[in-house]
Amino acid sequence: MRFLPVNLDALLVELDDLDQTLALLASLQREPLPGVEELVPAARTIFVRFRPSATSADKLVQNIAGRDISQRAERSSTLVEIPVQYDGEDLAEVAQMLGTTPEEVVRRHTGSEYTVAFTGFAPGFAYLSGGHPSLNVPRRSTPRTRIPAGAVGLAGAFSGVYPQASPGGWQIIGVTPVAMWDLARAQPALLQPGYRVRFVDIATQIGAARAGITCAGGLKDLQPSQRTRDSLAPGQSALQVRATGLQTLFQDLGRHGQAGQGVSASGAMDPTALKAANRLVGNASNSAALETVGGGLQLQSQGENVVAVTGADAPLTVTTAAGRRWSVPRYQAVALADGDTLAVGQPEAGARCYVAVRGGFDLPPVMGSCATDTLANVGPAPLAAGDVLGVRPAPASMVVGAVELPPEDLPTLQQEVVLDVVMGPRTDWFSAAAVERLAAQRWQVTAQSNRVGLRLAGEVPLDRATTGELPSEGTALGALQVPPSGQPVLFLADHPLTGGYPVIACVAPYHLDRAGQIPVGAWLRFNPIRTFAELTPGV
Question: Please, are residues 461 and 437 in contact by the beta-carbon 8 Å criterion?
Answer without folding.
Answer: no
